[in-house]
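Can anyone check this?
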Amino acid sequence: MEPDLTPISLQESFCFSCSPDVPCFNECCRDLNQFLTPYDILRLKNHLGLSSGNFLRQYTSLHIGPESGLPIVTLKPKDPHKLICPFVTDTGCRVYENRPSSCRTYPLMRAVSRSRSTGELTAHYVVLREPHCLGFEKGRTQSPRQWTDEQGLAVYNENNDKLMKIISLKNRLIRGALDHESGRRFHAALYDLDNFRSQIQHTDLLANFRLNSRIMDAALRDDVALLDLAIQWVERNLLNPEQSKRKAEIL
């Protein structure tokens, strides 16, 4: 049976609850096809006390997005035959406090469109009803807005939406996939943040930027500030290198 997808506005209500008392508990952590955003990886690697490089090697696989042509990262299942999440246990998720954004959003799915004229982002939601999920039977009534607040999604959405500008710029300037070296550097900058921090400290990676000390200090000590800097570096040096040559931007 195929899952049911029902569009829903921010103000409309849906009925859903998930807890160990629901008979299907943990079923949504199987048949894994889990995409991770750079912000997801930032939260997970810090929760586990791993460097970004070690987290990527141990828990992820790298692919090229068929539509964007950009490197994308997926969570590697614990068992390649059963496709079970590596973080699920009999009592639930062992990284629950820092679980990925798609897990937090479920059973909703969120998509974002970007206005070409204003650049404004608009979020759209659908309710995903999968055959195995029994959370709708005796759930609590809430709106997508309430669910977003309750699941702590605002900070995830804010950081994930920053990639929309990158994807839009890439699709406008570069057709198809990035070349191998550009793809490697894209992945290294956005997903392997600890390596990116080392690169900006010990190489001339930011030679085309004029950074004030406040922003540089923030990037060296805070992963979110570092991710913001990495996104700007990708935008100017990988996706729009002619702009980078013409003018060194002050960030």
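Reply from J.R.: I decoded it. The longest helix spans residues 154-173.
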